[in-house]
């Protein structure tokens, strides 16, 4: 019964153009990669689908630091943080992260996690007790949604960036603890939350603002400090989650917040307590990643990335203007996430396949990841891309448009 049920469900997904497929990379993360599509031999492709925004994932300094970390600390941690897996390398990384975010969260402490998903589950389940209410943007990442669903606190969701609705919800709330939860850069649209307005609401209603800055850390703000710095924010009411597998080029995540919040998470957050600590060698290498992001080289990479974003938007706008019948439009994004909205699921898959035939790797994103009727190509840029790469992508889209 189970297998027949699952097979029927899989066929239904395929009929709706919702079936997902994995591709296997045969080379390091970079714009030009050797990739094996499902059941096909490897071929070189120009990729616009990683979250390696600063192009650090294959940086020789990080590879060297990771190697040195293994030589110093071995390959694994061996236990959870609260047993014997908490290494001097973890302590040093958390100290560096807290100091980096201190201009935005005065007196901050930091706590590291294996993934951003785990960090968000830990945050919302540890803080979202029966004395709290969670207020969440409807386009928040799945990890924030799942964390809210697992928490004891009720969760109220407000329409994307709709502060009027959120204000009404906060005004009617009777619980003593209020948690406003938002992505900083929304992962499928590339737009930014109005963090200054959200912090003002938090202060007015005695609430706390939880910010998932997975796609802003390293890219936005002074020295890549992220979205809080980008908006010039500083407050003890801020609770910040940043991932270290995107712009930072490696892996893991962290929460930075008031030391009391961090201590409460150490004592009660199940995704922290009941899992093996990440390898200390990774924590050791991440300190080098932080140095790179804050350095003149990091500034240069951020400037180049902004130039690429402007170039892509200019070229795509010109292409869309020549093809009005296709119904494509470019999302309003100033970040490295540049969605090209296609609309129909099958049309988005066909466009992605047409690009793949030309050696261009741009994934089609469909419901439930995005709302029904808004299937898209999610184009992501890296500082490792060149202007020529951008032109090659837009030329490929023009050829695909003519064929389709």
Report on this structure.
With 404 residues, this protein is an alpha/beta fold. It is 44% helix and 17% strand. The protein has helices spanning 2-15, 60-73, 81-85, 88-101, 116-127, 142-150, 163-171, 195-204, 227-230, 259-268, 270-273, 280-294, 296-322, 345-357, 387-403, and strands spanning 24-25, 32-36, 43-47, 109-113, 132-137, 155-158, 177-183, 208-212, 238-243, 253-257, 329-330, 337-343, 360-361, 364-365, 375-380. The strands form three sheets. It has a seven-stranded mixed sheet, with helices on both faces. A four-stranded mixed sheet has the order 1-2-3-13. A four-stranded antiparallel sheet has the order 11-12-15-14. Helix 9 (227-230) links the parallel strand 8 (208-212) and strand 9. It is globular, with a radius of gyration of 22 Å. The model has no long low-confidence stretch (mean pLDDT 96).
How are the SSEs placed, and which strands pair?
Layout: H1 2-15, E1 24-25, E2 32-36, E3 43-47, H2 60-73, H3 81-85, H4 88-101, E4 109-113, H5 116-127, E5 132-137, H6 142-150, E6 155-158, H7 163-171, E7 177-183, H8 195-204, E8 208-212, H9 227-230, E9 238-243, E10 253-257, H10 259-268, H11 270-273, H12 280-294, H13 296-322, E11 329-330, E12 337-343, H14 345-357, E13 360-361, E14 364-365, E15 375-380, H15 387-403
Parallel strand pairs: 3-13, 5-6, 5-7, 7-8, 8-9
Antiparallel strand pairs: 1-2, 2-3, 4-10, 9-10, 11-12, 12-15, 14-15
